[in-house]
Amino acid sequence: MTQPNMKTLTRLFAVSVCAATSTCANASPIFHTSFDCATARASVEKLICRDSQLLQMDIELTRLYRLAITDNHSVPRPDKIMIDQQFWIDARNQCASDPAPKACTVRQYAERAHQLRQGSVIARTKDPDRLTEGPLAFRCTGINEQLAATFFNTQPGVVYLKWANSSITLSQVQNDSGTQYTGKDARGSYSFWQDGNAVLFQKPGSGEMSCTAEPIGGWPGSHPE
Length: 225
Description:
The chain has five helices and eight strands. By secondary structure, the protein is of the alpha+beta class. The chain folds into two domains: 6-124, no CATH class; 132-214, Lipocalin, CATH 2.40.128. The protein starts with 5 loop residues before the first helix and ends in an 11-residue tail after the last strand.
């Protein structure tokens, strides 16, 4: 498989970082992946470099990370975010030994994007070129806790869902009506479906649960995007 063309992606994210941070000088920075694909050694890094979806996720996560460490009000604080990022990289690279390395890597990126966006107002800054949205909050029948959803607008799309002590990463599937994400874990199959204001969530052992959007709460500077 040939390596994806980086030119369009790096130009896109260079513009987005400038807009989000307002730190651009006369020369625009080039925004690359978090590592150099030309010298990548880790198996997961090589996987990312030859997979367009993972490549997009890595570039977007690098953008979120760089924004979060400029946020003095982030939770956790920037110095802790930097430490956590190193642990996250180690965990991501361990996906090489997973039976499904790509699915494992997608989960790692989706969860980390959720953490960075949840903890930092700056990382949630509006940006026309961003590939992530959320966390958005929903209240679903049959679940006492609020359901948080963070979206990765890649091809295919991904949504990370978290409620209470549970979480799941789902991938977008073809649907003639609305946008649907599906996936499974050891407990069974999940589905998350949106069509306008209508939202349905199904988890193992339950029927389809109707969900309604709620005001965002529980993380720094919470406000609708």
